[in-house]
Amino acid sequence: MADQGRWFKLWITALTDPDLENLSLENFGRWCRFGAFLKAHGTRGTLRIKPPGKALCDLFRVPTFDKVLDLLGSFPNTEIRYGENTVTVELTWRNWLKYQEDTTVARRMKKHRMLRLKKRGEEKRRDEKRSKTPISPKGGELVFEFWKWGFEKTRAKFTPDRRKKVAARLNEGFTPYEIVWATVGCSKSPMHMGQNDRDTVYDDLTTICKTGSQIEKLQVHAKEQEVISELRKFKEETGIEIGSQEGQGDTSTVVHSGTGGGDEKSGNREVET
């Protein structure tokens, strides 16, 4: 479920790609099957596997893992790396992000950030001496309540560190809705949900609000319709309303991440108080 995708894109240019044209029809089929397998079980174009790699042997319909590696070596833009103990093999599709990732959200977030920075610059030039308008604590409280609800952290407190991180992002111009979006994205990020070298879940509010760039990176993992849907659930279950950003009309909702990452759950997590 790594990329949590339902599709693997086969671009029509694959039919005339000079590197792919070097493959036999049988190996072209294997290349397509490998792409779908990587989408289902890898993380953003990378997959780690240990011999004998029966799943890939069955996928390619070959008898040995060595034959699998021979085939992968013939595929364009496929990189094979061996671990220090030569037990784990890391397979990477180098141009995966270019052809497989949905960058629509990322482009929108980048555009929104540039507009926000431009607006802040214009306001600063209009009145260099104007004091910074204090952020209402209500926005931070809403973000915290949503995060606590979404990750089922019923005993979590709005600690000074969490409050400071949220306030910093709000002062940068991020809205509570945008931070909620990042919270949903965190719940859908395989790395943050424990698929990493440390098998540790990184879902604390201080991690989500670490920097403005972190907010935007996490937003990429969630579609806006998913955010809106979760916001409705939040309102229905808690009665708390979080207004959406411009363009969403009267939609007032928050996100239920569905990760089950409550304080009572077991497993490695960030230290929480």
UniProtKB/TrEMBL annotation:
Q: What does UniProt list as this organism's lineage? A: unclassified sequences, metagenomes, ecological metagenomes
Q: What are the start and end residues of every segment in region (Disordered)?
A: 116-136, 238-273
Q: Where is the composition biased (Basic and acidic residues)?
A: 120-131, 262-273
Q: What is this protein called?
A: Uncharacterized protein
